[in-house]
Design brief:
Helices cover about 35% and strands about 15% of the residues. By secondary structure, it is an alpha/beta fold.
Amino acid sequence: MAIRGVPELPVEGKRVFLRVDFNVPITPARGIADDARIRASLPTINHLRDRGARIVLASHLGRPKGTPDPDYSLEPVAARLAELLSQEVLLADEPAGDGARKVVSDLRDGQIALLENLRFHPGEEANDDQFARALASYADIYVNDAFGTAHRAHASTVGMLKHFADRGAGFLMLEEVQFLSKLLGHVERPYIAVIGGAKVSDKIAVLESLSTRVDKILVGGAMANTFLAAQGRRLGKSKIETDKLALARSFLKKAEERNVAVLLPRDLVIAKTPDDSLGQVVASTSCPDDSMALDIGPETSRMFTDEVARARTLLWNGPMGMFERPAFAAGTLAVARAFGENRRALSVIGGGDSAAAAALAGILDKVSHVSTGGGASLEFLEGKSLPGILALEV
């Protein structure tokens, strides 16, 4: 892939349009609940600032449906970024228009402006050419550091790039592509994938792709319920995708034909509701009719962590249960700690929930890479070409 990195671009004294992923959770008091994505952009921002670029930042936040909505303003993001940089960040009151042009035109070397939420304009998600031209007119050079949006063909990730001779990737984008590409190439074995989360339908494509590459797949979370139900287990009130049972059976059969072991929970932590303060451990064949599975059980945790400890290449996407509730967090945290303890392996964690669990377990600095892209990382691992990356090629 012929993509230039930001150090190769002639940014000195130039206006640089930097697409970032500042789609962060906002508190009811309009603060930042988790600034990890903002921090992830700092190496590229600092690099551009140190080289005297005039930086035009752009991001979306939430789903404001193509119209201005104060609940989705990037104002708290601008304030947090200014704190992290110890420098003023000028916030335009719109993503495109006279106000945005005035803010951008007044920039001096090393100064930073942030356009208002790109999704305040319907042209962003529609990849409208007129909106793309307006964005492109604000800068001389384009840099994409928003891997989390690379699977979307929007105006700021694809449409505007044809107007730039000089375009490239930021440090975060380069790192994401580097580590995720390793998982698609030749790796040390055993290669273990731990896949959790809510729905089989969200992850069946990546499961199919992984089953041609890995040695074992460990399945947890609510999606494990559907696989267990496909094997004839009764799971009470557990969340099950009944319309995906045939798909689950088909996948299990294909994996067996490929000699890829798919390990499902042997025991579960159940409760009558997610609000219960205490769970009960039962075999995965013994969930009562009035209860639901909310975490993998201790035997399954030991089985999964033993597999993780032996691996030389590791991928984790999706929690093992409702880890945000303390009563149902043990399985997810056990997997996270096992990832952190296996320092010999190439270990990659993807998805917002998995990254949050890794942070809760204190292992973010003990794994090889934590991906900032949920859907983007899954599509990359499926082997798909992501439009936001293809558009950077020269």
